[in-house]
Amino acid sequence: MSKLNTTAALAALLMATAPIAYAQVSTAPHTSAPATSVIGSEIQPDQFRATKMIGSTVYDVQNRDIGKVKDLIVDKDGRVAAVVVDVGSFLGVGGKYVALNISDIKTNNNRLTLDRTKEQLQQMTEYRLEDRNTGAGTSTSPATGGRLGR
């Protein structure tokens, strides 16, 4: 048999057996429903994206700009422990950070509002994003996964 005929015969044999190898599907009835995610498949109306919130302007009830969201502090259980707002700065200079409960901030039409004035926020205790004693808050997230803060 020539080399061409041998190659053609081998190719025909592979093509004839290939569907058998890929068609091995179980015909047994499924005993359980497909797994569904507890989280869901899309963002819900009462949820927001952290990337949209960080950097957003916070307004008071009179629609005045009172600061910008600097960061979200997440606890070890994955809950937002605090929303850090930069108050009183001009071009990033002269302000201070204050921490608010996430429940204090209202979202309406992609706007963040707070039932406090800028003056009330400026009276609050300054929130430090870095702990001088432990170094918490100084590490960046690892680029390839792993534990935070290392």
Q: How does the SSE layout of this entry go?
A:
Blueprint: H1 3-22, H2 50-53, E1 57-59, E2 65-74, E3 80-87, E4 96-100, E5 105-108, E6 111-114, H3 118-123
Parallel strand pairs: 1-6
Antiparallel strand pairs: 1-2, 2-3, 3-4, 5-6
Structure commentary:
This protein has 150 residues and is α+β, with helices and mostly antiparallel strands. The protein has a domain at 50-123: PRC-barrel domain (SH3 type barrels). The protein contains three helices and six strands, in the order H-H-E-E-E-E-E-E-H. It has helices spanning 3-22, 50-53, 118-123; strands at 57-59, 65-74, 80-87, 96-100, 105-108, 111-114. Strands 4-3-2-1-6-5 form a six-stranded mixed sheet. A hairpin with a 5-residue loop joins strand 1 and strand 2 (65-74). The termini are far apart. Residues 13-26 have low confidence and may be disordered.
